[in-house]
Write a structure and sequence with these properties.
The complex is a heterodimer.
Chain A (H helix, E strand, L loop, with lengths): L2 E12 L2 E12 L3 E6 L5 H9 L6 E6 L8 H5 L1 E4 L11 H9 L7 H10 L13 H14 L4 E5 L7 H17 L3 E5 L3 H4 L5 E6 L2 E7 H7 E7 H8 L6 E5 L3 E7 L4 H9 L3 E4 L2 H8 L8 H5 L2
Parallel strand pairs in A: 3-7, 3-8, 5-6, 6-7
Antiparallel strand pairs in A: 1-2, 1-4, 8-9, 10-12, 10-13, 11-12
Chain B lengths: L8 H15 L2 H18 L3 E6 L4 E6 L3 H26 L6 H38 L11 H31 L3 H20 L4 H10 L4 H22 L8
Antiparallel strand pairs in B: 1-2
């Protein structure tokens, strides 16, 4: 299948800070991909490079096989939704939807008005008078109703309450199923969004740490818990993603899931508990600088 | 697969132009308010002179529509400057590239200049009528303006408004490029005048530049001068913003 976005050796530096570091990946069309990473991992920079707001320092990014920077064709097929979208101050929400709809060929005005009503946004209100969460909600409505072949959400749920977030994920998924498109979605809340995701791209210090389907991420690692010697013996020399002491004798380790059924069975017999690692936890472990997490800082003393 | 939308720079620029006439409609209200203020200020007269003897008191009041024009030109500059500051951020939220953004801005400034030029000229006429009605007496020019003169006046006013708003746009874009230009441009201007005054005892640079346009008596040459200056300004803006990144 043709890729919607293709990065090769993509690099972006701001002065001496390298935000995106030699990044290469292909984003398949018509999937919802989650862009996960910690603060400062380069998520927003990557999305802005794809949207053509920023020019790469090195390497290349292609959107629908074209360079997105200063490209009106890419721009017409892409929408970038975040909490900083500049909306005209002189128009009210209803008028903004009217005016913005003119830019997008696939714009669904009925859907936009329907969502506006559902989320209790008064079309006579002005964007700059909205609360943070309502702004995000309005921007999200624009993003969904625009039905762009490439829809980018950069932390779109800022300020939204839990109920609105839940409705938003559902609205996005419903419209996506009827009108498949490529969605690239950055968020801190992997647990919440993982339900709607196909793939997960984990970014760490401007590099791709992990890029696979959501299901593969769930299988990627395994947690071992039990007596220290027993756990260490099973883990052997394999890479350790996370280590946590549980009391004086017990140990919890997260290691790559490269065990056969028999090995896991043998582990259980030795009193080692084998558990799955939730995707969100795994992403935190993989991008942590200290293998023991915040506890390391305190245990040093 | 959702099919890709095909589009072109002129098509997008046209949509952006329509969008801008909507979202910047408030500019026109500011213009009318400013011109009304100019009208009120002019009505008081720009100067008096008079003499009186034992039997006769003679008073001459100078009334001119210049204030309206000056205020209109200030408005045009501000519109150009603000457009450079806000439109870039606004345009790239939706469909745009750099060229389409500039083209739609140029079209918008052109429209504004036409409206500003026409209303400023008509404001001058309104002033004459009001003065005659209010003070009576004899207006020096009379009330009648030959249509060709009126058309020429409107034409010139439009060109002035365009020139000034393009200047504001260029300045605004420089500021977008680097905040330092806010200080740098006036600084350089004043510095150049100062140095010139110090070395030659005169500061003719700015005056000459203004006179280059103002003292042109031929409408055609005036048009050519303004046209070339404006094209040069816009070309500069388009050229140096090609690699400009979108800040939000």
């Amino acid at each position: 299948m043709r890729a919607a976005v293709e990065c090769s050796g993509l690099t972006k530096a701001f002065g001496s800070t390298v935000a995106i570091d030699n990044l290469s990946f292909k984003l398949p069309a018509n999937k919802i991909t989650g862009l996960i990473g910690r603060n400062g991992a380069g998520k927003t920079t990557l999305l802005k490079l794809i949207a053509g707001y920023l020019a790469p320092t090195g390497g290349s990014v292609k959107v629908f096989s074209e360079n997105p920077f200063n490209n009106v064709r890419v721009s017409a097929n892409l929408i970038f939704v975040d909490d900083k979208m500049t909306m005209p101050q002189s128009l009210n929400l209803g008028e903004i939807l009217e005016a913005v709809g003119g830019f997008y060929e696939n714009w669904d005005h009925r859907l936009a008005r329907g969502l506006l009503e559902y989320f209790n946004l008064n079309p006579r209100q002005h964007h700059h008078n909205l609360s943070k969460g309502m702004k995000s909600t309005f921007n999200m409505i624009v993003g969904i109703a625009a039905r762009c072949p490439l829809t980018i959400f950069d932390e779109p749920t800022v300020g939204m309450d839990a109920a609105v977030r839940k409705d938003f994920y559902r609205a996005l998924l419903k419209d996506f199923l009827q009108h498949p498109r490529t969605v690239f979605f950055s968020s801190h809340l992997l647990n919440e969004i993982s339900e709607i995701l196909d793939d997960i791209l984990l970014l760490d210090q401007g590099r791709c740490r992990l890029y696979m389907t959501k299901d593969a991420v769930k299988e990627f690692a395994v947690g071992l818990q039990g007596k220290e010697e027993a756990v260490a013996a099973i883990a052997g020399g394999s890479e350790i993603f996370y280590r946590k002491k549980l009391g004086p004798e017990n140990l919890y380790l997260v290691v790559p899931n490269r065990f056969s059924e028999e090995e896991l069975l043998a582990a259980r017999r030795k009193g080692v508990e084998v558990s799955a690692v939730p995707a969100e936890d795994l992403c935190v472990y993989l991008t942590a600088k200290h293998k023991g997490g915040i506890d390391d800082v305190f245990d040093r003393n | 697969m959702m099919s890709l939308t095909e589009t072109s720079v002129p098509a997008v620029a046209w949509k952006q132009y329509r969008f801008k006439t909507k979202i910047y409609a408030g500019n026109l209200i500011t213009l009318l308010a400013a011109q009304l203020l100019g009208l009120l200020l002019s009505f008081r007269g720009v100067g008096f002179s008079g003499f009186s003897s034992e039997t006769v008191t003679h008073k001459i009041m100078y009334i001119s529509g210049d204030i309206i024009v000056v205020i209109t030109l200030i408005w045009a500059f501000v519109v150009g400057y603000n457009l450079a500051g806000s439109s870039f951020k606004q345009d790239f939220v939706f469909v745009s590239n750099r060229l389409s953004s500039h083209l739609s801005n140029i079209a918008y400034l052109l429209t504004s200049a036409v409206i500003a030029g026409v209303t400023a000229s008509l404001g001058g006429i309104l002033l004459r009528v009001l003065v005659v009605l209010a003070y009576g007496g004899q207006s020096h020019f009379g009330l009648f303006i030959p249509p060709l003169d009126l058309a020429g006046g409107i034409f010139a006013a439009i060109l002035y408004a365009l020139l000034v708003s393009a200047g504001g746009y260029l300045f605004g874009m420089l500021v977008q490029l680097s905040r330092a230009f806010i200080v740098l441009v006036p600084g350089l201007l004043i510095g150049a005048l100062y140095m010139e005054a110090k070395t030659t005892g005169q500061a003719r640079l700015l005056l000459d530049a203004v006179n280059f346009f103002v003292q042109e008596s031929s409408y055609f040459l005036f048009f050519v001068k303004v046209f070339l200056a404006v094209v040069l300004g816009f070309a500069l803006v388009i050229f140096f913003s090609q690699r400009m990144e979108v800040r939000k």
